[in-house]
Amino acid sequence: MKKALSSREEKAVQTRLRILEAGRTIFIEQGFTKTTISQIIKKAGLGYGTAYVYFKNKDELLIELVDELMNQFYQVAERSFVPNTVEEAQSCIQEQVELFLSIAKQEAKMMSVLNEARGVSTAVAKRWSEIQERFIISITKDITFAQSKGLASNHLNPALIARGWFYANEMFMWESVTGESHFSIQEIREQLTYLYMNGLYHK
């Protein structure tokens, strides 16, 4: 049974949430570079220095917000992948691509902050690298399963193919977030999946 929080602990949890929510708002309004901890504290309606009790700097605060955001993506990437046929695999992969890009588009404001931050913050760039690896590991697992079922070519290196597949999706994700993409999510899903399936899976 989970132990109930004391009033002091509950207050600390609520304060942390206020800081995170204020941080999210200011990051979206100002962008990562222009945002300061002072602005976040003011938005949260807290005393000066309060944020530093919970977060060392704005980089650490953004990383926690990014981790929360990424949970939506992980749910897509790490969903059960146990196809018995190539057709089942293709259906699953198409759905994952569409959901991945759709979430990025829905969360475009925070994703834009992340995109900016990973270019100027060593800590955020490091966390993004860790996030990339988590996705790649998940894709590698799916490819390995497909190979074990005789659906995918065994002469291909699953870790290498997984890396290429993730980076292809990531490129279109950032283009979608920044508004640079001239293609619909459906077009990207169809074309990417076609290339992936015909390069990796047995027909």
From TrEMBL:
Record keywords: DNA-binding, Repressor
Presence of keyword DNA-binding: yes
PROSITE patterns: HTH_TETR_1 (PS01081), HTH_TETR_2 (PS50977)
InterPro entries in alphabetical order: DNA-bd_HTH_TetR-type_CS, EthR_C, Homeodomain-like_sf, HTH-type_Tx_Regulator, HTH_TetR, Tet_transcr_reg_TetR-rel_C_sf
Gene3D superfamilies referenced in this protein's UniProt entry, alphabetically: Homeodomain-like, Tetracycline Repressor, domain 2
Source organism of this protein record: Alkalihalobacillus alcalophilus ATCC 27647 = CGMCC 1.3604
Protein name: TetR family transcriptional regulator
All copies of domain HTH tetR-type, residue ranges: 13-73
Lineage of the species this protein comes from: Bacteria, Bacillati, Bacillota, Bacilli, Bacillales
Domain of life according to the entry: Bacteria
Keyword Repressor carried by entry: yes
GO molecular function annotation: DNA binding
DNA-binding feature ranges: 36-55
